[in-house]
Amino acid sequence: MAEERSYSARRFNVGDEVYAYARRPIVQQGTFAEYIAIPESYFALKPKNLSFEEAAGIPLVGLTAYQSIFDAGQLQANQTILILGASGEVGSLGIQLAKSAGAVVIGVASEKNQAFMQELGADYTIDYHKSHIGEAVKAYSRTG
Predict the structure, then answer these.
(1) What is the mean pLDDT of residues 25-31?
(2) I need a labelling partner for 36 at 20 to 30 A (CA). Which of 29, 79, 89, 114 fits?
(3) Which of 86, 141, 135 is nearest to 114 (CA)?
């Protein structure tokens, strides 16, 4: 008979697929381990359409985008944000976070990523190979 264990997790059920940002304020034992004890609040349910490998990248990338936009940048609704490298990991989450806050988003990436940035919610996109970024931003600010 399998050993019954009592867990203090309240938000999740046994068998739920979860992911977490497992870094503590003070790194001591590290996180490269089969098992680790961290607060339940560090976890979220893994989106069903993502693999564990895909979900593993979200916490640090999302935190970086969030801190850059809101903590350092103090972005508010109806402000405009320019995101360089907007088709990359931090940039693509940045587009989504900025749009959810009600900002106007200008994304910068190569031509092949213009549609992707628009799908994520970018209001305007700039191909850095074909446009002077500063001039394009000025043009968008006159039309927007």
Answers:
(1) 62
(2) 89
(3) 86
